[in-house]
């Protein structure tokens, strides 16, 4: 039995970009963007506590295995705060 022929996928937009939307169409686009932004905020709210918990667990292991000191962790946190500014 011969192997199946692979059909190449089309990439990019399937229709040409038109003029900017006006009126109600523009408002529905904004509503879509607002909804998408809200979904992203909800995802972050779910993931952030999990990431914070994993960081705390790693810090606990580092201290328990005596791979670093409490002062090392404090200075690392301070370094991150400075980098965020």
What does the model show?
The mean pLDDT is 84. The protein has one domain. The radius of gyration is 25 Å and the shape is elongated. The protein is 66% helix and 0% strand. The longest helix is centred in the middle third of the chain and has 41 residues, at 24-64. It has helices at residues 24-64, 70-84. With 85 residues, the chain is an all-alpha fold.
In short:
The protein has 85 residues and is mainly alpha-helical.
Strand content: under 5%
Which class of secondary structure composition applies to the elements? mainly alpha
- Mean pLDDT over all positions: 84
Residue runs with pLDDT of under 50 for 5 or more positions: none
Please provide the count of β strands. 0
Radius of gyration over all CA atoms, rounded: 25 Å
Instruction: Based on Cα principal axes, name the global outline.
Output: elongated
Q: What is the number of independent domains? A: 1
Query: What is the tally of helical segments?
Result: 2
Helix content: 55-70%
- The sequence of SSEs as H and E is HH
Topology:
Blueprint: H1 24-64, H2 70-84
Essential attributes:
85 residues; mainly alpha; 2 helices; 0% strand; elongated
